[in-house]
Amino acid sequence: MLPETSLPGLVSLLASAAALMASPGPATLSVAATAAAYGFWRSLPYALGINLGTILVLLAMALGASTLLYALPALALPLSIAASLYILYLAFRIATAPPLTDRTSELAPGLAPGLLLAVANPKAYLAIGAVYSKAVLMPSSALADAVLKCVILSIAIIVIHTVWALAGSALTSVLRHPQASRAVNLILAAALVLVVIADYL
C-alpha cells in the first residue's frame, strides 16, 4: 500500500487475528452451527449480524472502549451472562432443529441476535483489543495506522466468519438424513455449551 506501511507489523497483525479471532469461540462456532443447521444462505442474516457486531467491537476498541471495561470491570459479568444465555438458547435451537428437508417453515436466527451476541461478549473486546494493539502498521501517523488496522481487521472478520459458515454448511448434505442430522446438531450444540462452560472455569 503506502511506502510507510510496516510489513512486519502487517504480518504480526494478521497472525494475531488468525490465532485469536479465527479460533473456536462463541461467534465462530455459532456461525458454523447455524449454517450447518439451516444451510449457508438461510444463515447469512445471522452471520451478517455477527460480522457487524464484531466490527462495532473493533471500532469501539479503536476508540478506546477497552478503558471502559478495565475502569468498570463490573460490566463484564452481566454482559458475559447475557451472551452465555443467548448461546445456550442457540444451542437448544440447534439441538432440536429438524432435518434440513423439514425446515422450510422454520426461521433461522436473524441479524439482530447475531449483532447482540457479538456486542455482548466481553471476551471479544479483550481478544480484538489484543490483536489491535499488538502491531503498528504506520508509525508516522497514528490516525492512518488506526484506519488501516480497522480496514484490514474488518476484512479479516468477514473472511473468518464466512469460512466458518462455509465449513458449517459443508455438513448440510449430511444433515438431510434424520439420524445424521440429529447427531451433528447435538455435537454442535454441545460444543456451544462447552464454550459457555469454559468461560466460567
Summarize this entry quickly:
With 201 residues, the chain is mostly helical. It contains nine helices and no strands. The protein has one domain (7-18, 27-199).
Layout of helices and strands, plus pairs?
Elements: H1 7-21, H2 26-38, H3 40-62, H4 66-71, H5 76-95, H6 111-119, H7 122-134, H8 142-169, H9 178-199
Helix pairs in contact: 1-7, 1-8, 2-3, 2-5, 2-8, 2-9, 3-6, 3-7, 3-8, 5-6, 5-9
Question: Which structural traits does this protein have?
Answer:
about 200 residues; mainly alpha
What is the rounded Rg? 18 Å
Q: Which percent range fits the helix content?
A: over 70%
Low-confidence stretches: none
**Tally of DSSP β-strands:** 0
Quickly count the helices. Answer: 9
Distance between the termini: 43 Å
Proportion of strand residues: under 5%
Largest beta sheet, briefly? none
**SSE class:** mainly alpha
What's the structural domain tally?
Answer: 1
Instruction: Specify the overall morphology.
Output: globular
